[in-house]
Each structure stands twice: as structure tokens, then as C-alpha cells.
């Protein structure tokens, strides 16, 4: 209750002093993406929105790590519009789309990624995990094996192959 009261006092102070609301940061303002007189939000589609360095990607990554996949999807969708040549934006967008079951969207993102970072372990791991989520185990295994061949010491690849093995064993038990 004290936190709500402090937030109300902060808002009242800012409104009374004529200051912009971005000075008081709280979880209720998570979608604020730009600052100044023409503050834009992550939902804003204008091409003139200003973003500090990698703000969208950092925010999207945080939301993804906290398992807020819908929020990360929306943030990364904005990130690929603002930074269409950034592989990190596309990777986050594809992974978020996978987690919310938007495989049509993730397929589009993986096509874009194939042109950017196509022959890398991170690409093969991510697209493999996408196919694992869809239940397409043979295709998922093929991608994980490609990732392993490129980097046999990669721990993510090893965990994904183990997950793949467990998925196959589970299917055989039923």
C-alpha cells in the first residue's frame, strides 16, 4: 500500500510542477520508449520515434526472460520495424512469436534471419527449437544437429539435443 501511495504522491508532484511523467519510473510505465516533448510509446508506429541505443531490444529481452511473451512479442515487433537490419531484433521477434504460437510470424522472421546469420549455431538452435515447439521432431533434430556440427562445444546445442532425446523417449513411452 505504501508503494501505491508513494506513486500517487510522485504523480501529484509531477503534475503540480508541470514536469513530464517520465521522471517517475514505475512498472506501470514499462512501455515508455522515448523522452521529451514528443514522447512515443512502443505501440507508436511513426518512423520518427527516438529510441536510446538498444532500448527496445533490452526491454524485449527482459520481458522474454520474465516469460512475458506477449509483451516481448510486441516490443520485438516494434524493434524489427525500427531496426530492420538488426539480427538481435529478429531473433527476439522469432523466439517471442514461437512462444505465443505465432509460427507463421516466426517463419517469416527465420527467413529474414537466414539471410542475415543463416549458417550459425544460434540460428539453427532457434529454428530447431521452433520446430520442437510445433511438434516437428525430425526437423527440429536436423537443425540441432547442424548447430552441433558448427559448434560441438556449445552448451545450448547440447541442452537442445538432450531435450530432443527426452522428447523422443517420451513419445516412445506413450
From TrEMBL:
TPR repeats by residue range: 121-154
Keyword Glycoprotein in annotation: no
Native source organism of the sequence: Phyllobacterium brassicacearum
UniProt xrefs under Pfam families: TPR_2 (PF07719)
Signal sequence range: 1-21
Keyword annotations: Repeat, Signal, TPR repeat
Record bears the keyword Signal: yes
SUPFAM superfamilies on file: TPR-like
Name this polypeptide is given: Uncharacterized protein
Lineage, top ranks: Bacteria, Pseudomonadati, Pseudomonadota, Alphaproteobacteria, Hyphomicrobiales
TM stretches of this protein: none
Amino acid at each position: 500500500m505504501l508503494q501505491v501511495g508513494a506513486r500517487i504522491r510522485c504523480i501529484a508532484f509531477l503534475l503540480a510542477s508541470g514536469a513530464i511523467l517520465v521522471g517517475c519510473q514505475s512498472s506501470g510505465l514499462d512501455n515508455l520508449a522515448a523522452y521529451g516533448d514528443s514522447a512515443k510509446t512502443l505501440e507508436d508506429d511513426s518512423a520518427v520515434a527516438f529510441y536510446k541505443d538498444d532500448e527496445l531490444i533490452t526491454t524485449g529481452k527482459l520481458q522474454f526472460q520474465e516469460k512475458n511473451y506477449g509483451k516481448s512479442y510486441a516490443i520485438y515487433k516494434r524493434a524489427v520495424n525500427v531496426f530492420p537490419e538488426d539480427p538481435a531484433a529478429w531473433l527476439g521477434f522469432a523466439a517471442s512469436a514461437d512462444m505465443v504460437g505465432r509460427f507463421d510470424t516466426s517463419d517469416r522472421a527465420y527467413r529474414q534471419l537466414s539471410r542475415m546469420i543463416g549458417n550459425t549455431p544460434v540460428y539453427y538452435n532457434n529454428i530447431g527449437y521452433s520446430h520442437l515447439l510445433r511438434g516437428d521432431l525430425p526437423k527440429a533434430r536436423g537443425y540441432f544437429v547442424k548447430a552441433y556440427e558448427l559448434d560441438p562445444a556449445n552448451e545450448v546445442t547440447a541442452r537442445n539435443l538432450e531435450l530432443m532425446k527426452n522428447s523422443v523417449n517420451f513419445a516412445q513411452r506413450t
